[in-house]
């Protein structure tokens, strides 16, 4: 009972002609146990990570896994694998990327030669794979001939069988449009 409530009750009892007794204190062993419990260090229960914290943890794990494995891509069994996929282009603006538009999923900066793959294609061509791209319409083959791209980014989970090529300007990305391509893993 708080002290002000006790004073109010006591004042009412005195007006009625009754005696006002102070409340009894708890036994000293109860007080000692309460102090001991208050001073005991309990392990903190970790709070559930927020979506941003979880994304940062996932990105850090992806970076660590790519940095830990430093074997050449040429020795991996994916060399020579091909896939036909839908290709689009993107550039570093928040509307087309996440909150960090200039940082790829592997933690590197965006630059010419970076491609993002849908998650199903990442199983075939993991991060760090060097690939060539051939435009099946033939329109951009002269631009793509002899270029090697690096898989360093990923696309939204809703995308399937898709390749996104990073381009420095919005105009270049719009000119690329959407097209069918053949992606091939190389050395």
UniProtKB/TrEMBL annotation:
An example of a GO molecular function for this protein is: hydrolase activity, hydrolyzing O-glycosyl compounds
Question: Biological process (GO) annotations?
Answer: peptidoglycan turnover
Secretion signal span: 1-21
What does the entry list under GO cellular component? outer membrane
Q: Which residues form the 3D domain?
A: 123-185
Keyword annotations from UniProtKB, A to Z:
Signal
Asked whether the keyword Signal is assigned, the reply is yes
Keyword Calcium carried by entry: no
Instruction: Give the residue spans that cross the bilayer.
Output: none
Q: Give the InterPro entries listed for this entry.
A: 3D_dom
Name of the protein described by the UniProt record: 3D domain-containing protein
Organism expressing this protein natively? Deinococcus arboris
């Amino acid at each position: 009972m708080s002290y002000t409530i006790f004073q109010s009750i006591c004042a009412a009892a005195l007006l009625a002609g009754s005696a006002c007794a102070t409340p009894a204190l708890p036994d000293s062993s109860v007080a000692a146990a309460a102090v001991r419990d208050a001073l005991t260090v309990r392990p903190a229960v970790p709070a559930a990570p927020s979506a941003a914290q979880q994304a940062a943890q996932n990105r850090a794990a992806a970076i660590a896994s790519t940095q830990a494995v430093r074997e050449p891509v040429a020795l991996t069994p994916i060399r020579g694998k091909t896939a036909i996929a839908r290709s689009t282009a993107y550039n570093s603006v928040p509307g087309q990327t996440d909150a960090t538009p200039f940082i790829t999923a592997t933690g590197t900066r965006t630059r010419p030669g970076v491609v993002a793959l849908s998650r199903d294609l990442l199983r075939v061509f993991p991060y760090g794979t060097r690939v060539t791209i051939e435009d099946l319409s033939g329109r951009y083959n002269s631009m793509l001939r002899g270029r090697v791209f690096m898989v360093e980014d990923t696309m939204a989970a809703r995308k399937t069988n898709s390749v996104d090529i990073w381009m420095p300007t919005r105009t270049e990305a719009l000119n690329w449009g959407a097209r069918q391509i053949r992606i091939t893993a190389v050395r």
